[in-house]
Design goal:
It is a single chain. The chain is of the alpha/beta class. Helices cover about 40% and strands about 15% of the residues. The protein has 2 domains: about 130 residues, Alpha-Beta Complex (Aspartate Aminotransferase, domain 1); about 240 residues, Aspartate Aminotransferase, domain 2 (3-Layer(aba) Sandwich). The protein is built from 14 helices and 12 strands.
Length: about 375
């Protein structure tokens, strides 16, 4: 199988698995216990916390370990709004549902939410943010990299606007971490979400960076774990694996970025030159290096996914989190795409394990599959395929 769905999930790195195994076997102590097994488990968590912090230039005491990106985003949005600083949230129209759904819940509870538009390349305007801010604005949450088209937002400039008004700024960096250099202090963000399984770590674990001094209300109460911010016995093995994945991502950042860029360039160049009536979506420069999002006119994206799967290529049309809810991409619609463009889109995301031979073979398969689908397309005469 040629796996080009790394935005949905990545294979767990062998070193990560090796690091986790002892905590599934002999190192089984509860981190809250004071005996040596408990102390060893707690020490392993603190070591992992430092690795997570180092990846994004944070202090380890600013890292809240969660069950993944969705919990991190929910904690950021609800934790700030429950603190009672104001009743207005600003977000963008292209956020992941893990941000949009908490915002919709807040609206039902009487909060006001502003959804900033994006341009045809998926970019949020700094000026639009300035216009939406009010005295009631308590939180701005705008993703660093879009999970569908890969566009990178001007987070530093957006966060500066919020900071100048004393407003908390959160960014969902789940797709960006490991694919671009991130330093929370350079970005100026107050909170930042990460997910382990996007960077070759295990599923079911993630983190939320919370800048020291940011007032946030805990959502899960109980025994006071995670500095009182998230009660419940910790998932030690997965946390250890997450820490190792962060270490590997940090140590191999430069070579991975080059690798991603090279493979994505091959995909983009060959698709555009060898398959007619295609476009690459998202910003051409301001984008994460492993994402190639393409529209094939006259082709249904879901049919394309099925045909690719039959030819042993794994890809997607967009967010894996919403694929079971058959709905058109809100991201592509917000970018002004027509129904035909939205339904004919494909997301290819390369990973550290992919090779040039794989992406070359993928383009060859794509050419064949698109030709087959266009031969029976109702748009055949319109585009003269």
């Amino acid at each position: 199988m040629i796996y080009l769905d790394n935005a949905a999930s990545t294979p767990v790195h062998p070193k990560v698995i090796d690091k986790m195994i002892p905590y599934l076997k002999e190192q089984y102590g509860n981190p809250s216990s004071i005996h040596r097994l408990g102390r060893a488990a707690n020490s392993a968590i603190q070591n992992a916390r430092r690795e997570i912090a180092d990846l994004i230039g944070a202090d380890s005491r600013e890292i809240l370990i969660t069950s993944g990106g969705t919990e991190s985003n929910n904690t950021a949005v609800n934790g700030i709004m429950q603190h009672g600083r104001g009743r207005h949230v600003i977000t963008s129209a292209i956020e992941h549902d893990a941000v949009l759904e908490p915002c919709r819940r807040l609206e039902k509870d009487g909060c006001r939410v502003s959804y900033l538009p994006v341009d045809s390349q998926g970019l949020v305007s700094v000026e639009d943010l300035k216009r939406e801010i009010s005295e009631e604005t308590a939180l701005v949450t705008i993703m660093l990299a879009n999970n569908e088209v890969g566009t990178l937002q001007p987070i530093r400039e957006l966060a500066e606007v919020a900071r100048s008004k004393g407003i908390v700024f959160h960014t969902d960096a789940v797709q960006a971490v490991g694919k671009t250099h991130i330093n929370v202090n350079d970005l100026g963000v107050d909170m930042l979400s990460i997910s382990s399984h996007k960077i070759n770590g295990p599923k079911g674990v993630g983190a939320l960076y919370i800048r020291k001094g940011v007032p946030i209300t805990p959502l899960i109460l109980g025994g006071g774990q995670e500095m009182g911010m998230r009660s419940g016995t910790e998932n030690v093995a997965s946390i250890v694996g997450f820490g190792e994945a962060c270490k590997i991502a940090r140590e191999n950042m430069e070579q991975n970025i080059i690798h991603f860029r090279n493979l994505s360039a091959i995909l983009s160049r060959r698709i555009l030159s060898e398959i007619p009536a295609t476009t690459i979506n998202g910003h051409p420069q301001q984008r994460i290096p492993n994402n190639v999002h393409v529209t094939f006119l006259g082709v249904n994206g879901e049919d394309l996914i099925i045909k690719l799967d039959e030819n042993k290529v794994a890809a997607s049309t967009g967010s894996a989190c919403s694929v079971k809810i058959q709905k058109a991409s809100h991201v592509l619609k917000a970018m002004g795409m027509s129904h035909e463009q939205v339904t004919g889109s494909l997301r290819l995301t390369v990973g550290t394990a992919n090779t040039r031979e794989e992406v070359e073979q993928t383009v060859d398969i794509l050419k064949m599959v698109v030709r087959e689908l266009r031969a029976v397309s109702p748009y055949k005469s319109k585009y003269n395929f």
